[in-house]
Amino acid sequence: MALLEFYGAECPHCVTMMSMIDKLIAEGILIERFETWHNDENAEKLKEYDRGLCGGVPFFYNTESKRFICGETDEETLRKWARGENV
User: Fold this and answer.
1) CATH number for the domain including 7?
2) Strands ordered across the beta sheet of 68-70
């Protein structure tokens, strides 16, 4: 399973989510991060996973459960996403 976060470096919504993502990573949850605003390769990877689901960042995708989150969310929803639960 891979947990993916796509974000933009200057995106205010992405910046809001960073501390929650850092907290989950510190707890041992592996989340792969991809900056898309300044990295064309990561922007293309975002398109592969997004497929019209969100159309922007932040975008969170769980490759096992296929669950995703568009935009900002709260910590409990982020944890459910990481566990593959309905969000």
Assistant:
1) 3.40.30.10
2) 31-35, 3-7, 59-62, 68-70
- Other Cβ atoms closer than 10 A to 7: 23
- The residue segments making up the domain with residue 30 are 3-58+65-83
1-43 confidence digits (pLDDT tens)? 699 999 999 999 999 999 999 999 999 999 999 999 999 999 9
Query: pTM higher than 0.85 for the full model?
Result: yes
CB atoms closer than 10 angstroms to residue 81: 21
Alpha carbon distances (Å) from 39 to 51, 56, 64, 67: 18, 14, 25, 24
Domain count within the chain: 1
- Residue pair 20/46 in contact by the 8 Å Cβ criterion: no
